[in-house]
Amino acid sequence: MKIVIVGAGPTGLYTGIALARRGNEVVVVDRDPGPADDDGWERRGVMQFHHPHGFRGQVVDALRVEMPDVLDAVITAGAVPTRIPELGDRIVGMQCRRMTFERVLRRTAATEPGVELRVGHADQVCEDAGRAVGVVVDGERLDADLVVDASGRAGRLGQGRRAPALGGDCGISYVSRQHQLLPDADPGPVNSPIGFGATYPGYQIFVFLHDNRIFSTLITRASTDSDLSQLRDEQAYEAACQAIPGLAAWTGADRSRPITPVLPGGRLHNSYQGQLNAAGDVALPGLIFVGDAVCTTTPTAGRGVATSLLQARRLLELIDEQAPDFEAVSLAFHVWCEANIKPWFEDHVYWDADQTRRWAGGDIDLTRRLPSDVIFTAAEADPSLMELAGPYGGMEALPDSLLAAEPRAREIYASGWRPPVPEGPTRDELAALVLATAGSSVP
After folding, report:
1. 131-143: average pLDDT
2. What does the pLDDT look like over 308-321, one tens digit per residue?
3. Of 54, 381, 383, 387, which has the highest C-beta tally within 10 A?
4. CA dihedral sign, ordered 327, 332, 338, 344
């Protein structure tokens, strides 16, 4: 088959390599020309490219099943497999920058027989007899038996074809920066597979571990918090990192050096959009949407690449089973995503709305269903809850699996227990520091 994939991010590259290894002719189209010869890669139009990513066990599994050589190459490039001692040798994720991960995928695709990487803009889908038969790229028609849209949430190929997307602005913004440990420096504190995290009333901080002794610091806030929006200022961000103990332990001048500017995040969305149009029919047979074109979630939980490659794996299975009946593939893929991907979107919508309410001063609301993060946190008070919270946290069980833990979590919060607030500035103290230092010059 001839297949055109629009979008050369992780989902498009992974899907393209896997389809080519099944004997198909694949063209992957993207506006970005790829990495420069040196270590840089601007990746225009992909705001989140240099922000931290979580590469969960689902990503490792996806590579292991379809392309173990790529998994080996990512590790050779410096990615660190993540293990939890209680689970033995099982790899539950990778510590890696998206740039490193995507560079390896792109290099593999560039040398893969059956894959052509084409730089250009996909202007429109070509139709004939009610099905997709190719795309127009910068005015040139590319014929195809199947078109896969992996261009992301804002991609235009499906504009107006599908039922409107669900979701919207998640109400959370963030700022991050990449750093590298000095040659003889020890790492800072770690309290999770991604690195380190702490939640304060009004904001959260994270340290994401990456490849080659590189890590990202990240501070999240409510999008409406105009004071903390000044964290995008370099002096303000540096002052915040030194004032918050969990970040100071990683970013001290004797431990690491920044290697990027301060990176403000764009508007963050939780979104979900299936394969069907408003009438409930396949939007266009032969045109299948995958990855962020189906689902995006707040990045602080690190689910984006995982949900995208879970989709890609299922799509590959369905193509193997049902091609060339791509209308049947779309319908089956839609049903699968509704059951296995949409719940993660709905989980984030509820979680994010409640978190921003709590950041504004609200207490845990015991009159409503408890959001997942509140149930998960209750395991600090009753570790037996980890039997349910653990699989959810690892994305090995869907969010509804936490319903069995909710009664016990409710009891814990009704008793008056609240998670201890870590040492560090309050939201108001942090805001005052940020406002006092934003725009100041370094002596």
Report:
1. 96
2. 999 999 999 999 99
3. 54
4. negative
The answer to whether the 2-167+268-344 and 172-267+426-437 domains have the same CATH topology is: no
pLDDT of residue 355 exceeding 80, the answer is yes
CB 351 within 8 A of CB 373: yes
Share of the chain above pLDDT 90, in %: 86
Domain boundaries, the chain: 2-167+268-344, 172-267+426-437, 365-417
* Residue 441 predicted with pLDDT over 70: no
Contact 423/218 with Cβ under 8 angstroms?
no
Residue 324, preceding bond cis, omega within 30 degrees? yes
Residue type, 225: D
C-alpha 413/C-alpha 123 separation (Å) is 53
What span, in angstroms and rounded, lies between the C-alpha atoms of 216 and 180? 9
CA distances from 142 to 3, 28, 111, 333, 417 (A): 9, 11, 21, 25, 61
First vs last Cα of the chain: how many Å apart?
Answer: 63
Fold that domain 2-167+268-344 belongs to in CATH = FAD/NAD(P)-binding domain (3.50.50)
Looking at residues 173-182, what average pLDDT do you find?
96
Question: What pTM was computed for the model?
Answer: 0.95
Packed helices 68-76 and 57-66: angle between N→C axes, nearest 10 degrees: 120
Beta partners for residue 424, in sequence order: none
Instruction: Band the pLDDT of 442: cuts 50, 70, 90.
Output: very low
Q: What is the DSSP string of 421-439?
A: PPSS--HHHHHHHHHHHTT
Which residues are registered as beta bridge partners of 338? none
Which region, left, alpha or beta, applies to residue 86 given φ > 0 means left and ψ of -120 to 50 means alpha? alpha
**Domain 172-267+426-437 annotated CATH 3.30.70.2450:** yes
Instruction: Write out pLDDT tens, residues 208-248.
Output: 999 999 999 999 999 999 999 999 999 999 999 999 999 99
Measured between alpha carbons, how far is 419 from 425 in angstroms, rounded to an integer?
A: 16
User: How much of the chain exceeds pLDDT 70, in percent?
Assistant: 97
β-partners of residue 22 are none
CA distance 311 to 325: 18
* Alpha-helix runs per DSSP H in 361-405: 372-377, 386-393
Task: Give the span between the Cα atoms of 398 and 59, in whole angstroms.
Answer: 17
Q: 37-41: list long-range contacts, CB under 8 Å, 24+ apart.
A: 41/99, 41/103
**Sign of torsion, CA 317 318 322 326?**
negative
- pLDDT at 47 (0 to 100): 62
